[in-house]
Design a protein that fits this description.
single chain, 107 residues, mainly alpha, 3 helices, rod-shaped
């Protein structure tokens, strides 16, 4: 085989390989691409549904109302804690006086 024939043969082989890869789609690659497209569509549908549910529901407003309620109760909790500490110190002082009175009348 001469150099011209080998060159023609190699070009024919290149065209056949190019035709197999580009002209005729690979079934596995096509199935994979179709599967990826379906998955992307499903994920997109779920995202649209989630956005729609969030828009239609009042989750954000309910959450903000709950946060405001907790914030308003925080000052009450702090003042209650301070009141309990003050009551504890008064109770300790009262116990001290009761012990002194009891000791005075016991002797």
């Amino acid at each position: 085989m001469g150099w011209l024939e080998s060159m023609i043969f190699s070009r024919k082989r290149q065209r056949m390989q190019a035709g197999r890869n580009n002209g005729v789609p690979d079934i596995a690659q096509a199935a994979k691409k179709e599967f990826q497209d379906r998955v992307e569509n499903i994920i997109g549908d779920y995202a649209r549904i989630a956005r729609s549910v969030l828009k239609e529901s009042h989750v954000h407003e309910n959450m903000m109302a709950t946060v405001r309620n907790f914030a308003s109760h925080e000052s009450n909790i702090v003042s209650t804690s301070e009141s309990l500490k003050h009551m504890q110190s008064l109770t300790n002082e009262l116990k001290f006086h009761v012990d002194q009175i009891t000791a005075r009348y016991s002797s």
